[in-house]
């Protein structure tokens, strides 16, 4: 009987996280998929398209290096990269930074107007807080930002172009470069 009990515990844990094939999950933050290639990168490239926070997605297939999900009838591949892997973050851990069972609308409602405007537009703006930036852009790639304590967060727009968000000591955006 222990095997059955063990597997039911695994199932319960999977159901709790929502991370399983055929499950519906929601975007915890704004995401920026590559609309042409139908790819969402684990490296969290800041592309022009916004898959908005709280958007519902259905997980279709969980593989070793990619996760397929459906958003508004389109299948996207969520692709793990060597940088994220080297930083010690598994595909599942990385995916769960961006997708979960419910999004925190109450938290967003408690943030400043500057933060709420940024979150709506999916673009960082001077005057936003670190929390607002996390909802707007997602967590910056872990390999370049192992902690979020620093006053500069580094994002990538694509393979070649980086974007730095500078904060003051109170965690308010002073510059986007």
Q: Summary?
A:
The chain is α+β, with helices and mostly antiparallel strands and 177 residues long.
Commentary on this structure:
With 177 residues, the chain is an alpha+beta fold. Helices cover 29% and strands 24% of the residues. Strands 2-5-4-3-1-6 form a 6-stranded mixed sheet. The chain has a 3-stranded antiparallel sheet with strand order 7-8-9, with no helix packed on it. A hairpin with a 3-residue loop joins β3 and β4. The longest helix is centred in the N-terminal third of the chain and has 16 residues, at 2-17. It is globular, with a radius of gyration of 17 Å. It starts with a helix and ends with a strand. 28% of the residues are buried.
The oligomeric state is single chain
Q: Mean pLDDT, as a whole number?
A: 91
Distance between the termini: 59 Å
What's the total number of strands? 9
Low-confidence stretches: 1-5
Helix-strand makeup class: alpha+beta
